[in-house]
C-alpha cells in the first residue's frame, strides 16, 4: 500500500510540472482584446460599447477640429478677398468719376467747337448769299447800263453830226444841194433816223412848247390865240423823246 502522502506529493509535483509547462497568462497591460481568451468577465455590455464609442469620438475629435481649423482660415481669406473687392467696388465710382471728368471736359470742348463751327458756317453762308445777291444785282445793272451806254454812244455820235446836218439843211434850203452829194446827204439822214431814231422837229405854225422850243424873239399878233412859232431860226433834233437840241424860234403871242 502506497503512502498517501507520497501520492499527494507526486500529484503536487505533476501539477507543478504542468503549471510550469503552461505559458503564463499575459497581464492586462500587455494583452489585447484579440489575444485575450473570452471570459465571462470580458464580455462587452451596451454600456461599455457606448463608453467605447464616446471615447473613440473624443479621440477623433481633435483631427476633425484641426481640419475645421483650416476651414476658418480659408473663410477668412475669402472674406478678405470679398472685402478687397467691395473696397475696389466702392472706390470704382470715384475712379469712374475721375475718368468721367476729363471726358466731360472733352465733350464740353467738342460742343464749343461745334457751336463755333456752326456759327462760322452760318456766317459763310450769309456772306455767300450776299455775294450772290450783289452779283445778281450787278448783272442786272450791267444789262441795264449796257443799253444805256449804247444809247449814250448813239447820242454822242448824233450830237457830233448836228452841225453837219445843219449845213445839209442850209444847202437844201438854198437849192444848192444836188447831184451825188444830195443822195449822200439823204442817205446819211435816213441812216441816223433808222439806227439812232434821230429826227428833226420844229416847224412854223406849231404851238410853242417851252420844253422843246427855245424862244429867241417874241411878238404879239391878233392872228393867234396861243403862243405860236412864227419862224424857225435853227431846227431842233431829238432821239425818241429825248431832246438833243431845242429848236430856236420866234414866237407870236396873242394880244
From TrEMBL:
Subcellular localization is given as: Cytoplasm
Checking Pfam families in the record gives: GrpE (PF01025)
The record's Gene Ontology cellular component field reads:
cytoplasm
UniProt-listed GO biological process terms: protein folding
> What CDD domains has UniProt attached to this entry?
GrpE (cd00446)
Q: Mind listing the GO molecular function terms for this protein?
A: adenyl-nucleotide exchange factor activity; protein homodimerization activity; protein-folding chaperone binding; unfolded protein binding
Renumbered residue ranges of the record's region Disordered: 1-108
Instruction: Give the UniProt keywords, A-Z.
Output: Chaperone, Cytoplasm, Stress response
Please report which protein family the annotation says this sequence is part of. Belongs to the GrpE family.
* Subunit architecture: Homodimer.
Protein name (Swiss-Prot/TrEMBL): Protein GrpE
Amino acid at each position: 500500500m502506497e503512502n498517501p502522502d507520497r501520492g499527494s506529493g507526486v500529484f503536487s509535483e505533476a501539477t507543478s510540472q504542468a503549471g510550469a509547462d503552461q505559458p503564463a497568462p499575459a497581464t492586462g497591460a500587455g494583452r489585447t482584446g484579440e489575444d485575450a481568451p473570452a471570459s465571462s468577465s470580458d464580455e462587452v455590455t451596451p454600456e461599455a460599447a457606448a463608453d467605447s464609442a464616446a471615447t473613440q469620438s473624443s479621440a477623433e475629435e481633435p483631427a476633425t477640429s484641426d481640419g475645421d481649423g483650416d476651414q476658418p482660415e480659408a473663410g477668412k481669406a475669402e472674406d478678405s478677398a470679398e472685402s478687397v473687392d467691395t473696397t475696389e467696388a466702392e472706390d470704382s465710382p470715384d475712379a469712374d468719376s475721375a475718368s468721367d471728368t476729363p471726358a466731360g471736359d472733352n465733350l464740353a470742348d467738342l460742343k464749343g467747337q461745334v457751336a463755333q463751327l456752326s456759327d462760322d458756317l452760318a456766317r459763310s453762308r450769309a456772306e455767300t448769299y450776299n455775294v450772290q445777291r450783289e452779283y445778281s444785282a450787278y448783272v442786272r445793272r450791267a444789262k441795264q447800263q449796257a443799253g444805256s451806254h449804247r444809247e449814250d454812244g448813239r447820242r454822242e455820235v448824233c450830237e457830233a453830226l448836228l452841225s453837219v446836218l445843219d449845213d445839209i439843211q442850209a444847202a437844201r434850203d438854198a437849192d444848192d444841194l444836188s447831184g451825188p452829194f444830195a443822195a449822200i446827204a439823204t442817205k446819211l439822214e435816213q441812216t441816223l433816223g433808222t439806227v439812232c431814231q434821230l429826227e428833226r422837229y420844229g416847224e412854223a405854225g406849231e404851238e410853242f412848247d417851252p420844253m422843246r422850243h427855245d424862244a429867241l424873239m417874241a411878238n404879239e399878233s391878233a392872228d393867234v390865240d396861243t403862243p405860236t412859232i412864227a419862224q424857225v431860226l435853227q431846227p431842233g433834233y431829238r432821239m425818241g423823246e429825248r431832246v438833243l437840241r431845242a429848236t430856236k424860234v420866234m414866237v407870236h403871242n396873242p394880244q
